[in-house]
Amino acid sequence: MLFHKGGGNMKRKQVQRCSKMDMFWLATNVCFSLLYFLNPSPTYVFSFAQSIQPTATPPSGPSPDARLSFYGSLLAAFTTIIAAVIAGVFIVYQVRKNRRLELEKQQIQFQLDETLQRQQNQAELGKIFYSEKLSIQREEKERERQQRNSAAEAARAAMISAQTPEEREQAYREAIRHDIDITHLQILDMSQPLEVAKVYVRVRLHEEPQLSYEIEATLRSAEKRRDPNALLKASWASLETRSSASMTPEGALQKYPRCIVLGDPGAGKSTLLKYLTLKSINKQLLNIPDLPIHIELGEFAYSDTQDLVEFASSQWYERYGFPQQEARIYIEKHLVEGSAIFLLDALDETVIGANEDIAIESYRRTLGAINQMAARYPKVSIVVTARKAGYYRRPRLHGFTELEVLDFRLDEMKQFIVNWFAHHTVTRRHATADKLNAELARAPRMRALAANPLLLSLIVMVYEVQQDLPEKRAELYKQCIDVLLYKWDTSRDIRRRREFKPEYKRQLLMEIAWHFHQQGRRYFSEDELLKVIAHFLPTIRHSAQQCKLILSEIEEENGLLKEQAHGWHGFLHLTLQEYFVALYISENDKLDVLLPYCGDPWWNEVLSLYAGSVFDASLLLQKLLRQERRYWPYQDVFHTSLLWAGRCFAARPRVKQIAVQEKVIARLLNLLKKTPYSLTRNQVISILINIDVDEAREIFLAILKNKRANTQVRGDAVFALAQLEERAIIPDLLTLLKDKQEDAEVRGEAIQALARLEERAIIPDLLTLLKDKQEDAEVRGEAIQALARLEEHAIIPDLLTLLKDKQENDIDIRLRIITILPLLKDRTVIPDLLTLLKDKQEENYIRGSAAVTLAKLEEHAIIPDLLTLLKDKQEENYIRGSAAVTLAKLEEHAIIPDLLMLLKDKQEDAQFRGDVAFALATLEEHTVIPDLLMLLKDKQEDARFRGDVALALAMLEEHTVIPDLLTLLKDKQRAVFFLKNTKAALQIPQLLIDALKMIITWENKYQIAYFRWHIVVALAILGEREIITSQLISLLPLISLIVINYDIQKLLEEVVRGLPEIRDLARLLNSYFISYKDKNIIHRILWAICRTEKVRILMIDLKWIKFIRVSKW
């Protein structure tokens, strides 16, 4: 909740108490006044005797003082009467007011009681419906169970009654189809097993599972930046790279008939073999044997059998009733022919025994049985599965291709969830596949865990049971770790050899996570890891010499640690490392060690998880609030501690001190209203939504309706309401939309919010706005964008009518309409656009935009019309140039001869010929290079035109034109044109460097700032970091002279590193020459830089005077 439940009542009681106190003091004052006026003091005359003693003598007549006393008494009596009347009126008013309030209170209470009763009735009906549905589903499950048992019994009976090998084979196939151990998947303690064929999502197999000798460069680079988000992105990118070179299981079996499939615990290896068994038995695998023999190697290891064929025949007899001797003969026949496939599951589960020697011997016996069978039957296909961690530490199979199961990608996760919800028939009220997929899309760390099929299954199961994901992420992570640490093997009755208790493993993992996270490390060397383990073992009475054995056990059995490269280890996912760090801090009382890291991206998730792990987060929130004000009178520009207090509160911790909850919310709301920075407002909005959606909605609506509130704050409130996807706010937004007295920016946000909510009912209102020429231009522009977003094709006639209206005062409106037409993807607009293009009375900008739009619509039928325009010498040169460029964008190579002819025609306008040269370069037609070089060398040609030719050659990567381009730079006008087309010279960095030196001599400071910044951005694309760094200090003061675009923003985020540069950039926040929009961008840039460089920016803001301090954390 945003507020304590009784918060509103408490405030009303305080107001009532204040009113009662005011009444008390008023009544008291009236009483004292009455007493004073009704009992006036006696009047005395004083005289002084010789002894200088005062003597009281009564007056001897009606002195002036007596008259005054009389009138005073009269006045007092009159005043008393007036006061009494006022007091009486006030008392009557107060009584009536109290009565009215009491009636209102009773009415509100009645409405509340009525609403509560209605909700209770609905809840009861829901329970009845749920109970009935649950009963029906139980009956369905029981019927399904009985049907499976009946089918299995029928298959066994068919096997017993079978007389010929063909009949026995058919009975075997039918028995496999109804063998619940193969057809179904039981995960942990789920109430109903999953059907493999229905929920299976095809995994990908990679051909190079062996570890590299170094951590991938992208992962190592992300680790050095100590940015968890960068690490997550690098991990996903690595997975995508490996997936692009992966194979399907069917493709792998066709290519490698003998292979071993390796993977982490829960990666889906066993499920894959079950799926292949079912596909094979149904003859659905192309060029792969169709007689599957599925064996769990753990069972083989526990048996006394030395031969896999003998073991398979005994299993056929025990499970399906196939006579053992006949089964062996039948299996051997197919093995010799190569028409059978052995599917051997879980080689790692054969490491069993009372001590290490016995366990290794058990493994060797199984390995020998597989190798022996492979040698005896050279034609047989064999697929084995094993956990990757243990396989490379023990003897390996001979002649088997090693493949690795890759983690799920996002699409595969989504498909698994959809399959689960479609076929796992349990009763759900609110949980849906779409909702869970949306949750995963918003949570990158949870998505990292969900890449493992077992953990994804656990997440889905938790979601099903709770009808939602746990409010505390820490709780979900705890359940995932418990599964890997305690439950996964136990639930499948797998008994491995174990030296170390699970609880000790948990404690050790906390120590490891804390040790390396403090150093900012995701990957750690084996030697250092073993030292940490060896240091821990004596504390639980284990020998430090067991450190290697313990590491192997954790990696092989639980998979929580993983060898990432030869000699390099790390947690299965960074998320697990962060969780164990949070646990360590909680259990070892290290909060004061954690707090200084507040705001450091490397520790952000740890702080959030810690909040969700402690019994009471009151102390954490209090310390964060105090930390926010520790730099007074300076103030943190990013309000780091306050925002993190909000994020920790949003992690749904228990906060026993209600006052602390209310203080966090109050300060966040105050920050929302006062901050001038959109980044901070958006952060506060996100936090408030995560704390309590319902209360946040009320807050944003209240802000929106308060017309005295800051315009930007109100606009952000509209954006926040749209984020909530709450359609109940649509009437409020429509009211805003229609209110012409409302601020244009707020109305524009309302329009976009309605479009994001896909509220198609607003289309008529948007058209009305658009047609109203008296309406604000910005609002009309937003209406155009909203109509494009809604993709309402029925409005196209109206848009075309507006587009053709030459009386429209604002040409920008017409241009915007042209711009959105391609987004509507309606080719019926093409004739009207062609008409506009040909209309010589029309504005050139409109005609040129029409040409560009036609190119975007890829309408090749307009090529003849464009050619006509191109050749018409009576036409405007701007239009002819636009036609040339449009033809080039349509990739119409047939026009090259015409373009070349126009290019060489010296009677044509120089600027138009320049456009033709640009069109030829756009077509990437290298055959025209000789003609262009000839024109470039012709000194009789116009200098402007030769410059355009040089640029076209640069675009065609003709480096021989460098001297000509360097000469071109000496012409200031041509240099401006060249610099505006900087991308054309990206292959020639020297030109840009020379340009930087040249333009410093210009007089126009705006041109200097604009072009220097854009050249530096171009050099950044080329990786010329040294030049950029040397230019940066002199460039920062010029930033107020330009508009900061996305490229410049990214450049500054990546290049600005030293404290002097950060300080110079921070000072721009105080500049009166920087626009509000650019200050917001600079604030965002500084936020990104400070997170990377661990820098704090503090400010004293006295409106007219501001002081800035920059320091390291």
Automatic annotation (TrEMBL):
Report which superkingdom the organism of origin falls in. Bacteria
Q: Which SMART domains match?
A: EZ_HEAT
* GO molecular function list: oxidoreductase activity
Q: Which residues cross the membrane?
A: 21-38, 68-93, 446-463
Q: Which UniProt keywords apply?
A: Coiled coil, Membrane, Transmembrane, Transmembrane helix
Q: Which InterPro entries match?
A: ARM-like, ARM-type_fold, HEAT_type_2, NACHT_NTPase, P-loop_NTPase, PBS_lyase_HEAT
- The UniProt record lists the NACHT domain at 259-423
Report the coiled-coil segments: 98-158
Role description: Catalyzes the hydroxylation of the N(6)-(4-aminobutyl)-L-lysine intermediate produced by deoxyhypusine synthase/DHPS on a critical lysine of the eukaryotic translation initiation factor 5A/eIF-5A. This is the second step of the post-translational modification of that lysine into an unusual amino acid residue named hypusine. Hypusination is unique to mature eIF-5A factor and is essential for its function.
* UniProt-recorded name of the protein: NACHT domain-containing protein
Look up and give the organism this protein is from.
Reticulibacter mediterranei
